[in-house]
Design brief:
By secondary structure, the protein is an all-beta fold. The chain has 1 helix and 21 strands. The strands form 5 sheets. Strands 1-6-5-4-3 form a 5-stranded antiparallel β-sheet, with no helix packed on it. It is globular.
Length: 297
């Protein structure tokens, strides 16, 4: 049984969204937290619910984007002896469809800043985790609790003035795609079934000059990347590196996406072009949940 959110954040009034929003943008605001809530990552369950991680405190939330009344998220877990929750991913198909149980898998004391997570289709017991400060990707066996670094590369490292290097990671076929916030790039690298590199990484694209940095990634059914883009956008990058950005509302700042951090495709739709859900850290504003209707793009 999920317990209701303890801090009772104020829900956004969808009636207050200007009618021009739907016409000018495929993105709509679903929910806005109170000022203390900052979202970091999101995963989709097969029942359509979203699991949300947060950086303001070590919380895990559940949110039903299909609810008509847009009631507030539910608090699933408050983790003790932790200050925040970051990456989240479904380790195997339909694993998040079952009754949720939460258990600790392992500690990784050698890690510096664990961030984005992804899976390997051929190895359902393995998850890959980006280490933004170490400039590496860890592989973790979720059944045994064993772990090791599988890839290190200069394209993963940060910079002295901005130490956040490799950030979001996502797999598609036999390739892992990644963003590097400090180096301002989106790249890819061929991997084997254990997550090790089988070729040198390649740079696919750099964010446009008016963009601050790229964060987490969602891969679509054609291998294109959708990237959470600071400060107010989502960027679509094709396999060939062509990019296009979307904002919630270019002429109404109060509805802007405030520092998007992660995004995920919905799981409850039979349509090939499913909605893309976007979460934000809020920056100096409350964290938010948006839906991007990819059918309109």
């Amino acid at each position: 049984m999920e317990e209701p959110l303890l801090s009772a954040p104020a829900a956004s009034s969808l009636e207050g969204i200007p009618s021009t929003l739907a016409a000018s943008s495929p993105i709509s605001l679903l929910y806005e937290f109170d000022e203390k809530d900052s979202l970091e990552n999101v995963a989709a369950r097969s029942n359509g619910h979203l699991l949300l991680t947060a950086t303001h405190q070590a919380n895990l939330y559940s949110f039903d984007p299909q609810q008509q009344d847009k009631s507030h998220p539910w608090l699933l877990k408050m983790f003790s002896n932790a200050t925040s929750t970051l990456g989240i991913v479904e380790a195997a198909p339909n694993r998040l469809h079952k009754q949720l149980t939460i258990r600790k898998i392992t500690d990784i004391p050698e890690a510096k800043a664990l961030n984005g997570m992804t899976t390997i289709k051929r190895s359902p017991n393995l998850v890959l985790i980006a280490d933004s400060s170490l400039g590496a990707i860890w592989s973790v066996d979720i059944e045994r609790g064993s772990y090791s670094i599988v890839i290190e590369h200069k394209l993963f490292t940060g910079a002295s003035e901005f130490p956040l290097g490799i950030n979001g990671i996502a797999t598609y076929d036999d390739k892992i795609y990644f963003t590097n916030s400090a180096q301002r790039l989106y790249g890819g690298i061929q991997i084997n079934e254990r997550g090790g590199a089988t070729a040198a990484p390649e740079i696919i694209a750099h964010p446009l000059p008016d963009m601050e940095a790229w964060d987490d990634i969602a891969m679509d059914w054609e291998g294109n990347g959708w990237i959470a883009t600071h400060a107010h956008a989502v960027t679509h990058v094709t396999v060939g590196g062509r990019q296009r950005s979307f904002t919630a509302c270019s002429d109404c700042a109060e509805l802007a996406m405030q520092r998007p951090t992660a995004l995920v495709f919905g799981r409850n739709s039979q349509q090939a072009r499913r909605p893309l859900y976007v979460v934000t850290s809020g920056g100096n504003a409350p964290g938010q949940i948006f839906a991007l209707d990819t059918r309109l793009i």
